[in-house]
């Protein structure tokens, strides 16, 4: 792999604008049969999304993926969303009970529009088996599989039947995989995305390491159809995490799905917990994201999101940790 870089090492090169106002730029993207306002999805983590926020996002044409950490609620959630005329998008794991869950979906003819296989190391036979199980029993669900970090993995999961793959092992803000295991795409997530996207024949979700709105445009440039975001969405009024007050400042919790806080035990911990500053309303952040992406499209010299795919870029420096600290 030559040319390894991360988000902060890259700048996109402006092209002549073809619009007279940024408001003419269209940030929407088609993904899995639906068109969404933004190429952005809040991470399927317990301090990032809950049923209420999922409902708001779906109602307002944003993509969402519900987390899998209250597994018993998934059937009722799917039915409730669909009864309201909204799309249902849920996550599954790969353990034995998840096979029974998929069987239950098929038996009761409950077909979520989107299913995401959410595990740390997606390039494995357990994930390939689950892809095949889901595609056999609920073939009409759009299936996202991950997480991976190599072109071989993207090809194998696509070949097994995944409709999209999720790229990113260890670049997340509350991730400590890179430190505890020495593996992953932390520090070179954007280059890994580029490498994977070249091999992909289906859509890719870039997952983790987004620190600024400009990083969304950079992800699109390097091949992402969707960008999964945790820390930037954490800390909002609508975020499910607990709120605390410290030195007169409001903070909200954000913890990793493989943290001790999520697992309830200290076993194979690869995530940490942190507090982020309270950021106000998520709706305002979504509007700001849209405006910033409209501006990015105008700098790309187009009026549609995918104009960003064609721009030149320069590598401005090299870094390892993308601004993260260990603890
Ligand atoms: N994107 C990322 O970089 C990462 C994300 N996470 C998130 O943390 C949550 C928990 O993930 P995960 O531990 O996979 O889920 P689970 O705890 O549900 O584990 C899934 C299964 O895969 C096995 N497994 C876990 N890690 C590996 C591995 N490295 N190699 C082989 N088998 C493995 C587990 O067995 P056993 O436990 O016995 O090994 C278990 O049977 C998920 O939400 C995931 O997205 C976690 C780490 C990295
Ligand atoms: N290694 C770990 N990665 C995790 C954990 N929990 C979630 N994640 C991944 O992080 C992204 C969000 O990244 P961010 O930079 O936007 O905050 C999320 O979508 C997961 O893929 C974890 O415990 N360990």
Task: Give a quick summary of the entry.
The chain has 327 residues and is of the alpha/beta class.
Describe the protein's topology:
Blueprint: E1 10-12, E2 29-31, E3 34-36, E4 40-42, H1 51-59, H2 74-83, E5 89-92, H3 96-107, E6 114-118, H4 125-137, E7 142-148, H5 151-160, E8 164-167, H6 177-181, H7 189-199, E9 204-207, H8 213-221, E10 226-229, E11 243-246, E12 249-255, H9 260-263, E13 273-277, H10 282-299, E14 313-315
The protein binds NADPH dihydro-nicotinamide-adenine-dinucleotide phosphate and the ligand Nc1nc2c(ncn2[C@@H]2O[C@H](COP(=O)(O)O)[C@@H](O)[C@H]2O)c(=O)[nH]1.
NADPH dihydro-nicotinamide-adenine-dinucleotide phosphate binds next to loops.
GO biological process, one term: purine nucleotide metabolic process
Organism: Planococcus halocryophilus
Binding site for NADP(+): 204-227
Overview of this protein structure:
By secondary structure, this protein is an alpha/beta fold. The protein has one domain: Aldolase class I (TIM Barrel). The protein has ten helices and 14 strands. The protein has helices at 51-59, 74-83, 96-107, 125-137, 151-160, 177-181, 189-199, 213-221, 260-263, 282-299, and strands at residues 10-12, 29-31, 34-36, 40-42, 89-92, 114-118, 142-148, 164-167, 204-207, 226-229, 243-246, 249-255, 273-277, 313-315. The chain has a seven-stranded parallel β-sheet. A three-stranded antiparallel β-sheet has the order 11-12-13. α3 (96-107) packs parallel to α4. The radius of gyration is 19 Å and the shape is globular. The chain starts with 9 loop residues before the first strand and ends in a 12-residue tail after the last strand. The model has no long low-confidence stretch (mean pLDDT 95). Bound molecules: NADPH dihydro-nicotinamide-adenine-dinucleotide phosphate and ligand LQESDW3C. Residues 93-95, 118-121, 124, 126, 147, 168-170, 172, 175, 177, 208, 257-258, 268, 270 line the site of NADPH dihydro-nicotinamide-adenine-dinucleotide phosphate.
